[in-house]
Design goal:
The protein is α/β, with parallel strands linked by helices. The protein has one domain (5-228): Rossmann fold (3-Layer(aba) Sandwich), CATH 3.40.50.720. Helix content is 45%, strand content 15%. A seven-stranded parallel β-sheet has the order 3-2-1-4-5-6-7, with helices on both faces. Helix 3 (91-119) links the parallel strand 4 and strand 5. The chain is globular and about 50 Å long. It starts with a strand and ends in an 8-residue tail after the last strand.
């Protein structure tokens, strides 16, 4: 495993934190972003508001100092949800989710791309969701933002693939997190019944897929969508 300089957005908790810790264990040098920039035990943190271009630029600059070089692997994980049914969804509820999850990821990818092109090496890994492919009632905004990431990765692959840069998407399904723990038991049972594996995934299982895509062994994989969903979204 070649040690790389890695930035994980939204890596201060949940799936993002699991990804960051797995990549540290793999021997990479890792910096994570959070909105607040508050410390996280065992991880280097920089503040970043991905809806603001200047904040993204400052975060990459700060990460470069901590990593002692430009980011080689970007894991774009940061995102939000504002769930409600389509006919009740406000313009703000739609646009804020798209601006964070899709436009925010674009801001980070754009900032990372220039030094990757100069180095003729880069790994870009975007965290989508089974919802982006499968759809989900009450999540029109979230589904739109997450499906859009596939377009970013595939366009980036065609633009920059000849420069040693790969861009891939990981699409988790229902993963055990603080958010899913708060669901009513009946709802959790209904979700589990729809999953062929009959269980929720673990954050470490998502991190394992990221670990592979960041590795030397994944150098000929680009523009792919890798599901980590227990079979829920197969065929989509």
């Amino acid at each position: 495993m070649t040690s790389r300089r890695v930035l994980v957005t939204g890596g201060n908790r949940g799936i993002g934190e699991a990804i960051a810790r797995r990549l540290v264990a793999d021997g990479h040098r890792v910096v994570v972003t959070s909105r607040s920039g508050d410390p996280v035990e065992g991880l280097d943190v920089v503040a970043c508001e991905i809806t603001d271009t200047a904040s993204v630029d400052a975060a990459f600059t700060a990460a470069k100092e901590k990593l002692e070089g430009d980011v080689e692997v970007l894991v774009a994980n940061a995102g939000i949800t504002k769930d409600t049914l389509l006919m009740r969804m406000t313009d703000e509820e739609f646009s804020s989710v798209v601006d964070t999850n899709l436009h925010g990821t674009f801001r980070c990818v754009r900032r990372a791309a220039t030094p990757m092109v100069k180095a003729r090496f880069g790994r870009v890994i975007l965290l989508s969701s089974v919802v982006g492919l499968y759809g989900s009632p009450g999540q029109t905004n979230y589904a739109a933002s997450k499906s859009g990431l596939i377009g970013i990765a595939r366009s980036m692959t065609r633009e920059l693939g000849a420069r040693g840069i790969t861009a891939n998407v990981v699409a988790p399904g229902f993963i055990e997190t603080d958010m899913t723990a708060e669901l009513p038991d009946k709802t959790k049972a209904e979700y589990q019944a729809a999953i062929p594996a009959r269980r929720y995934g673990q954050a470490d299982e998502v991190a394992a897929a990221i670990s592979f895509l960041a590795s030397d062994e994944a150098s000929y994989i680009s523009g792919a969508v890798i599901p980590v969903d227990g079979g829920l979204g197969m065929g989509h």
